[in-house]
Amino acid sequence: MLVGREAELDRIDAVLAGARAGGGAVLVLTGEPGVGKSALLEAAAGRGGDMRLLRAAGAEHEAELPFSGIHELLHPVLGLIGELPAPQAGALRGALAMSDEPVERFAVSAAVLGLLGAAAAEAPLLVCVDDAQWIDSASLEALGFAARRVRRAAVLIAFRDEVVPSFRASRFELLALGGLAQEAIAALVGGAAERPLSSNLVTRVARATQGNPLAALEVAAAVSDSRLAGRIGLGEPLPPGRLISHAFERRLGELSEPARRALALAAAGESDGAHVILDAAQRLGLPADAFAEAERAGALAVAEDRLRFRHPLLRSLAYARAGAEQRRAAHAALAAALPAGPGTAGERRAWHLAAATVAPDEGVAATLAAAAERFAQRTGYHAAAYAYERAAELTPAAPRRAERLVAAAEASRLGGRPAHARELLMDAAPLVQDVALRDEVALKDAMLEAWLGSVAVAAERYAAIAEDVMERDPDRGAYALSLAAGTWIAAGDTGAALVSARRAAGLLPGASEATACTVRETLGTVLVLRGEPAEGAPLLREAAAWFEREGELPGRDYVAQALLWLGDHELARRLLDPLLVHADQVGDIRALTSALEVHAQLELRTGCWREAHAAAAESVRLSEDTGLTVQLAYSLAVLAIVEAALGEPAAVAHATEADEIAARNRLTVIAEYTGAARGHAALAAGRPTDAVAELTEVARRVDRTGRRLPGVLQWEADLLEAAVRAEQTDTARRGLAELDRAAIETGHAWATVVAARIAGMLADEHRPHFETALRLHETAAAPFEAARTRFCFGQRLRRDGARIEAREQLRAAAEGFRAIGAKPWTEAAERELGATGERLRRRAPEAPEELTTQERAIAELVAAGASNKDVAAELFLSPKTVEAHLTRIYRKLGVNSRTQLARQLERTPAGPG
Q1: What secondary structure does DSSP assign to 770-816, as a single string?
Q2: How far apart are CA 72 and CA 77, in angstroms?
Q3: Same domain for 15 and 159?
Q4: Is the distance from CB of 101 to CB of 130 less than 8 angstroms?
């Protein structure tokens, strides 16, 4: 029984009860070594009763082995893998080295969720993960994704204090463990000491250990022995960690030499399995009873073919005390006991060989490099980087060493460690002899400059690389110049971007089809942004045609984004839809988050605001769950724009969060998105002066970039309307003249209709302008803009005394706003209607409960004929979660079958989500 942890046990009981009731909860235990995290996890396992228990524990030397954590955790339920969608099942098999199937890291996250959900469907699930600071990053990523979404499951995960951020613990409930009270320490050590301790000594133990239970037990055991009393130093203000170290050092010192060597071997190979360690022990000539002695001393325990140390620090001390030569011998013996080749055992063998080797050895280096390649294929980039780097250290030949250092740098970059990647490239550069590899190093270094330094400097480096390579390698030269152009756009200089993009186009005769598509997309985007769509749009459509003809998916979202700016919504949707379907099917969350962000903008412009909100919100959730920081900034900014339109208060908070991320990552363009969101929110809320201030700053930012295409973020309409409503007529007229000129020069349909509307707001003879705008609306699917024109027209008619005509326009405006969920605009239109003297009819009461965004998405998929399993795969949920949501959906809509659900959705207007 645990002493002094009643409150913590109550919290754990509540989490377990929630899981049994069908919910899901994550509890993160934090605290210093020895404070009782493992004991609480053990207590939770005992209190789980009929819950299905899955558990894993991190091992320091396995922290770089990709997916080793989830392999241990999911091993008991791998028989359920057949219940997963095929792409996810394949990704998980590949990740766990059960097959050679390709691994998409985020598909693995979805697969872990699905497998946990399948296990929870059979019985409530309890997941206990100890020493998570040593769980590999790939496993933590997958576990964190699944833990937030799985239902009928309780997830308890224990970290040391300093590493909690690596699991994004701010997203989960924390249970920070402090030291026990003196009374609890007295009860604890009183029951464990070999002889009774005086109250004075108990007080000294409690004070010296700061209430740390393990430290108190070890110190009490030492001071209860009269021969050792005083040697621990109870008068010193030692931290608990050092006290535990002293106690463990004493325990190791009392063992025989063979037992200490056995412990060092167990420490080196703890995750290899007891049979492997015992095989290695025979090779080292260790006596059979060496491990038994360590087990009797309480240092080791045998459980399910694993030799477990009582505490991670004891393992570290056993390994460190052994000495370098003895450690190398242990690793060599373990390597000899493991099979060569692919698979987890072969990968561990490679690690052991490298640890046993001092001098350069191409054979060992090649074995480790092969393992590194497999790690990278399974998206275990941290492990791949470390393995490639160690392989390079063991490589005798300089050219091959350079290749492995470059591979290590690329793995580090993909693993989110760009600074280390750059250090590795610097180490590789003097060793490079191959011209193509030298060009690759230069290109990668420029990419890292864009991440870590100045985007302008990076653009200049891309251009310099292109200059150097374009004669011998036109394809690489064209690609480098395209990267330069894209980087100049991010740096806010479309003039420089145009120069680079045109130079890239000059190299097309020597470029591959894929590079040619990239060049056309980049040049087309730059031309469109600079207000030259007549030249840019055909290039974008050529790129779109190549994607559709070749069936290529990556990169479609970039072309679709530019097509949105042109108003070509149909082609943008044709590009996006297959990308969204594919990313859903294979679990490619990196591609899905970007595609959802662009999809949200498309739906916002075409009046499907509920879908826009759902897409933007899901893009944000997925970006948060998977640590895609840069994408998160864009997704939050787009969500803020959608929420501003819907009148959601969260818009400002999301804009602020996007700005904070952008500041940390030098994403200057985000300020345009967030300024547009805040400006629209202020205008919709009836604060036109505030809107003018926000949007004028957006205009200044855009002007500095050299962009001339109107309607990229459609902030111009809000600025001009706000200026009119704030009675800043001169500002409105100057802005209208600029918009009119841009509309004529570019032929942009959105700019043309907005110019007509604003002209109607300003002109004495307003009818012709508003009537022109309404005619233009008939040819464009932009319900919000049409309703907005009718709203402004109705206002002018009411002021002119034409109340009957005003009512007609305002009724249509109110209905248009209401249909797409534009709440503040609906309310404004209804107020104007009331001002005409019309008595507003009471609308039918709202349903008692509206569907949430996720519930609506599930309902629509089910209504379209998708099974629960299909819905779960598409929305990254477990089938059990879909079933629970569907029960609530039926209750909210008052239906009891899928057929009735489909009919009800046809009759139920979509809310804002």
Answers
A1: HHHHHHHHTTS--HHHHHHHHHHHHHHHHHTT-HHHHHHHHHHHHHH
A2: 10
A3: yes
A4: no
Describe the strand order of the beta sheet including 173-176 as a list of residue ranges: 52-57, 125-130, 153-159, 24-30, 173-176
Question: φ, ψ for residue 3 (rounded to 5)?
Answer: -105, 130
Confidence (pLDDT) at 140: 87
> Tokens 């919100």 — which residue?
617
- Give me the CATH number covering residue 160: 3.40.50.300
Task: Indicate the number of domains in the chain.
Answer: 7
Are 60 and 134 part of one and the same domain? yes
Q: What is the DSSP string of 99-133?
A: S-----HHHHHHHHHHHHHHHHHHS-EEEEEESGG
Contact in structure between 85 and 117 (CB atoms under 8 Å): no
Whether residue 59 is found in the same domain as residue 164: yes
pLDDT value at residue 911: 46
Q: Quick one: tokens of 519?
A: 């060049």
Residue 235's pLDDT is: 47
As a whole number, the mean pLDDT across the chain is 87
Length of the chain: 913
Same domain, 575 and 644: yes
Say if residue 241 is in the same domain as residue 281: no
Nearest to 497 by CA among 509, 508, 483, 511: 483
Same domain, 263 and 224: no
Q: Are the beta carbons of 608 and 569 closer than 8 angstroms?
A: no
Q: What is the pLDDT of residue 664?
A: 82
Weakest-pLDDT range from 218-227, 432-441, 828-837 = 218-227
417: its two tokens: 């460690």
- Report the alpha-carbon distance of residue 909 to residue 896 in Å, rounded: 19
Rounded-to-integer distance, Cα 680 and Cα 720, Å = 11
Could you list the beta-strand ranges (E) of 861-901. none
Q: What pLDDT, in 10s, does the model give residues 563-604?
A: 999 999 999 999 999 998 887 666 677 788 899 999 999 999
Q: Is 526 helix (H, G, I), strand (E, B) or coil?
A: helix
- Joined tokens for residue 400: 């091959």
What is the per-residue pLDDT for 766? Answer: 95
CA angle, 191 then 192 then 195, to 5° = 90
Q: How many CA atoms lie within 13 A of 26 on its CB side?
A: 20
Which tokens is 29 given? 């235990």
- Does residue 409 belong to any structural domain of this protein? no
- Could you read off the pLDDT of 804-829 as tens digits, one per residue? 999 999 999 999 999 999 999 999 99
Q: How far is CA 172 from the centre of its chain?
A: 15
Whether 144 is in a domain gets the answer yes
Structure confidence by residue, pLDDT tens digits, 239-278: 556 667 777 888 788 899 999 999 999 999 877 889 999 9
Average pLDDT over residues 876-896: 73
Query: Other CB atoms closer than 10 Å to residue 774's CB: what's the count?
Result: 19
Instruction: Please indicate, yes or no, whether residues 694 and 608 belong to a single structural domain of this protein.
Output: no
User: 707 near 530, Cβ under 8 Å?
Assistant: yes
Q: What pLDDT, on a 0 to 100 scale, did the predictor assign at position 873?
A: 67
Say how far apart CA 337 and CA 328 lie, in whole Å.
14
Please give the residue range of the domain that contains residue 186: 182-252
C-beta separation of 153 from 116 below 8 A: yes
The reported pTM is: 0.71
